[in-house]
Design goal:
The complex is a heterodimer of chains A (about 240) and B (about 300).
Chain A (H helix, E strand, L loop, with lengths): L1 E10 L2 E11 L4 E5 L6 H8 L7 E6 L2 E2 L5 H6 L2 E4 L11 H7 L9 H14 L1 H5 L10 H13 L5 E5 L7 H18 L2 E6 L2 H7 L2 E6 L2 E7 H6 L1 H8 L2
Parallel strand pairs in A: 3-8, 3-9, 6-7, 7-8
Antiparallel strand pairs in A: 1-2, 1-4, 4-5, 9-10
Chain B lengths: L1 H31 L6 H17 L4 H27 L11 H27 L14 E4 L2 E6 H23 L1 H11 L1 H6 L4 H27 L7 H14 L4 H21 L4 H16 L14
Antiparallel strand pairs in B: 1-2
Helix pairs in contact in B: 1-5, 1-6, 1-8, 1-9, 1-10, 2-3, 2-4, 2-8, 3-8, 5-6, 6-8, 9-10, 9-11, 10-11
Classes of the chains: A alpha/beta (about 240), B mainly alpha (about 300).
């Protein structure tokens, strides 16, 4: 269980998260939706340790994550795929993937290779392009690479920030399907941030609606999806 | 023809050393985003330590190894004690402008350079002293002409090429090398991949410290040793790094050899006074024609 309580994160005088509380159940997909600037990315960045909250608490499986460095949070089983297909363009596809499991090399030598092979099975396109520089990939391939980089760290919780951003609908569907299958078959917990609420609520078990740094709704995804008033008020469709 | 060969030989051996200096600068620039002006100050200091050991009767090779270890240790300590605290966002928050914040480490490195030179002056006196070469510095004779190419030059070129090869293998083939490259290219993604970026940054400083100490050991037999002798080497090495493209290690090596050749040919065919002017001309030319340097930041293009 990921438990976020009264989380406040600000940048100078701008308050991005204003007392956010919610829970994400294990082996389920929880989606955080909301308009641009609602604080969705900041929420993920605070959980993964990239931003420091000014107050509140975050705990994963009963252990507090506050004050931990991002590199140690990854080691604790929480992988973050930030917004914008974040891969390192100057490194090859293979290097980008193995980067994510460098810290596991000593203890789990055999599994590091197995994890890499799994990624190539999950995304065969990446296997074809394993020796190409990541900068030469298409947007969708980059997103697949960023997800692979996160998955080879063998996370229990995956934080996904706007995987659909700038991608063709067909590619989005493929990526969301993959995440869904991973969650259902391996018990991976997913916290999915999306601006594309329809797609996100279609696959998620639970939904959290953020507006201006505050939680305005926290319900099963199907209920949120059916609530026309909320949709009109906060998502504009 | 003889002059040509002489210039070529001398350029290769000088160029090898400048390549090493440039490589040291590039590695810290990529790894930590700092142009480390203290680099040759560190090299000067560790060469003095070697010099002290050797003049006290210890072997050249002991001094050699100790100097390189001291160079690596100094590099790491500078990062841990000075640069890392200075890059702390919270502590520099009061500085409103991003460009002022970016200048902090550069100013710190200049301060460290000054402090090291003053300290060396206090400990070892500011006058020049010689530094031994492990192999004879008499030119080989080809067809009754003494060439300006010595057994020591062969040693210099050999050890520098070995170092460059090993560095390249280390960065390309090992996990730590990959972690260092990842940190240099994108710290955020590196952190999110579980890489301890503070550690890899310090490792870049250690590496660069060792490389520049090696450069110090290799150049002082011909230039002598004083607290300031290596300033010029830093300027030439920096030029080489910029010529090659400040963020490319391969470029640094090419830049080093190129600048070495220019210096050598100008001093053989022209006069030694023109050397400085010619370096400046090369720098200007590169900045005008190809501002990013020979191999600088080439964006990967989509296919």
């Amino acid at each position: 269980m990921l438990e976020v309580k009264n989380l406040v994160t600000s940048f100078g005088s701008v308050i991005a998260l204003d007392g956010v509380s919610f829970m994400a159940a294990e082996s389920k997909i929880t989606t955080v939706i909301g308009a641009n600037g609602a604080g969705k990315s900041t929420l993920l960045r605070t959980i993964s340790g990239l931003e420091t909250p000014s107050s509140g608490s975050i705990s994963w499986l009963g252990k507090s994550l506050l004050g931990m460095r991002p590199e140690n949070i990854v080691r604790a089983g929480i992988a973050h795929v930030p917004e914008g297909h974040s891969v390192i363009s100057e490194l090859t596809v293979e290097e980008n993937i193995s980067m994510g499991s460098l810290f596991r090399r000593r203890k789990f030598k055999g599994d590091v290779l197995a994890a890499q092979t799994e990624m190539f099975e999950l995304f065969p396109r990446l296997k074809e392009r394993r020796n190409q520089l990541a900068g030469t990939l298409s947007g969708g391939e980059r997103q697949m690479l960023a997800i692979s980089r996160a998955l080879v760290s063998r996370p229990k919780l995956l934080l996904l920030d706007e995987p659909s951003l700038g991608l063709a609908p067909l590619v989005v569907e493929q990526i969301i399907d993959t995440i869904n299958i991973l969650c259902r078959t391996t018990g991976l917990t997913v916290l999915l941030v999306e601006q594309n609420a329809n797609t996100a609520l279609g696959v998620a078990d639970h939904g959290v609606l953020l507006a201006l740094g505050k939680v305005v709704a926290d319900r099963p995804a199907s209920e949120l999806k059916a609530d026309a008033t909320l949709r009109a008020a906060y998502l504009g469709y | 023809m003889d002059t040509f060969l002489a210039a070529l030989f001398s350029g290769t051996s000088r160029g090898a050393i400048y390549a090493l200096v440039a490589l040291g600068l590039v590695i810290v620039w990529r790894g930590a985003g700092v142009v480390n002006f203290a680099q040759m100050g560190q090299a000067m200091f560790s060469t003095y330590i070697a010099s002290t050991l050797i003049s006290n009767g210890y072997s050249y090779w002991l001094g050699f190894v100790v100097a390189i270890i001291v160079g690596a240790a100094m590099g790491s300590l500078l990062d841990i004690l000075v640069l890392r605290p200075l890059s702390n966002k919270k502590k520099t928050e009061f500085l409103s402008s991003e460009s002022i914040r970016a200048a902090i480490p550069v100013i710190a490195s200049l301060g460290i350079l000054g402090a090291l030179q003053a300290l060396a002056g206090i400990i070892w006196a500011a006058e020049e002293r010689g530094f031994p070469a492990p192999y004879p510095q008499e030119g080989f004779t080809i067809a009754n002409n003494v060439m300006p190419f010595t057994s020591f030059d062969v040693f210099v070129i050999g050890i520098v090429l070995t170092t460059l090869l090993m560095t390249s293998l280390f960065f390309q083939k090992t996990g730590v090398g990959l972690a260092m490259r990842a940190t240099a290219l994108n710290q955020e993604v590196a952190k999110l991949s579980g890489i301890r970026t503070n550690f890899t940054r310090t490792l870049s400083w250690a590496f660069s410290g060792a490389a520049s100490s090696l450069a110090g050991l290799l150049i002082t037999p011909t230039s002598n040793l004083s607290p300031n002798t290596l300033d010029l080497v830093l300027i030439i090495g920096f030029t080489a790094a910029v010529v090659g493209g400040l963020d490319s290690p391969v470029g640094a090596v090419i830049g080093g050899f190129l600048v070495g050749m220019v210096i050598s040919f100008v001093s053989f065919y022209g006069s030694p006074e023109d050397v400085f002017l010619s370096i400046l001309a090369v720098l200007l030319l590169v900045l005008i024609i190809r501002p990013r340097g020979i191999l600088g930041a080439k964006d990967a293009r989509r296919v």
